[in-house]
Amino acid sequence: MCYCVPGELCVYCKKFCLYHSEPNEKEEHLQTCEKKEKYLENLNNSQEIECRICFELVLSKPEADERKFGILSECDHPFCLSCIRNWRSSAPTLVRRFRSNRNVKTCPMCRKLSYHVIPSTIWYFTMEEKQEIIDNYNTSCK
What we know:
Blueprint: E1 8-9, E2 16-18, H1 23-46, E3 69-72, H2 81-90, E4 94-95, E5 103-106, E6 113-114, E7 117-120, H3 127-141
Antiparallel strand pairs: 1-2, 3-7, 4-5, 5-6
């Protein structure tokens, strides 16, 4: 190893920034770069996801604020955030027997109950990714 180079090469960002003397920082850097790489991969894969209401590619919408997914926690159907919010605001609400004071909506495709819509700039491709999107949203709402 050349001692003129400040650190090892990161396989994700291609920078010489990984130091043997700081293993915790090295691991944190690799995890951060891996998350960025995974996000970019999912963003690229999300380009082809079509809204099940308007049948347009969600990330190809003309307005920037329309280029978001509306994720329902109980099902896996893709929707534009604006489409699913419009549908839910015009759809009749269901009142559950056990929670009579709470309005509940369903997915327009499978009719599974869904209490809220989670906005996201990317679509998920695994259940772990979906749960991470939901957790991040819930954390940001606190």
